[in-house]
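Progress against Task 2.4 (sequence-to-structure conversion) is shown through the following example record, which the project officer requested during the mid-term review.
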Amino acid sequence: MNLQKTAIVCGAGGFIGGHLVKRLKSEGYWVRGVDIKPNEYENNHADDFVLGDLRHFDVCEKLFDRHIDEVYQLAADMGGAGYLFTGENDAAVMHNSVLINLNMLEASRLHGTKKIFYSSSACVYPEYNQMDPENPKCSEDTVYPAAPDSEYGWEKLFSERLYLTYQKNCNIAVRIARFHNIFGPQGTWDGGKEKVPAAVCRKVAMAEDGGTIDIWGDGKQTRSFLFVEECVEAVRRLMDSEFCGPVNIGSEEMVNINELVRVVAEIAGKNIAINHIEGPMGVRGRNSDNALIREKLGWEPAHTLREGLTTTYAWISEQVAQTVKPTLFDTADFSENLTEETAQ
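Structure tokens generated for the chain above:
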């Protein structure tokens, strides 16, 4: 009798998904990854990788050709502020992500999978609690009355409730986490869907010592950022617990964007000036409140933001060196994105 646990990771072609597959394999799981695209940086350790569009129910059903113990649903239509906050992609963001969640839940129910993880986002929290950059309020119990600042946040909040209905009515154990700005190596670092740590690392890597980089807004907007390996550790603890969530998975080490640039510049050993320009910024302040996850799972991040940025900057600067000639760039072409990471 084969006692090896089996798992499907939806969004395995993305940033967090790739790291999660690697972690599950290290724990002895048989893992099937699925995504609409291959993993961009070859962070694919799955036993089987399916290229498929999870908006189509038949694709989802075919993933269950064997017994599956656990599903990790990280796939979504998402990106940074430049993608989510212009309003131009709202219909796609909501339509595509809701379809994926409906399809994977129903396929899991039909094929007897009893446990499923859903990656929600800190974008579910009300905009009215995140206007003060120094005192954002993002504890799990503040999500209602609902007022997310983007359709991406509204979709995530709806999908949380969708998963909870399947737990209530269909005997599926659901685990829900709200990610807060996950970053690290092997994540998107250019092209418009990258998040702020990757964007800042890229800009600093491309800038000369004494150069200037562009930042959207006044740079006083605050965020916290969690290194990807810490995120995966928290996800695995949540799945192995009896706690359903939703629960924040993030860091409480809040910085403003000007401070973030300063830290990355120090890591790079460069003197970098900031040019503040107009652009989408999201809420003024956001920080993870980890009181609940400390209580329920005994977890909190083990490493500082600087430690994670040091590793991330080294990786991104290497990518820049391999793909960009230093004399052929203009820092005015680049701008950072300030939203949470799920599948990418």
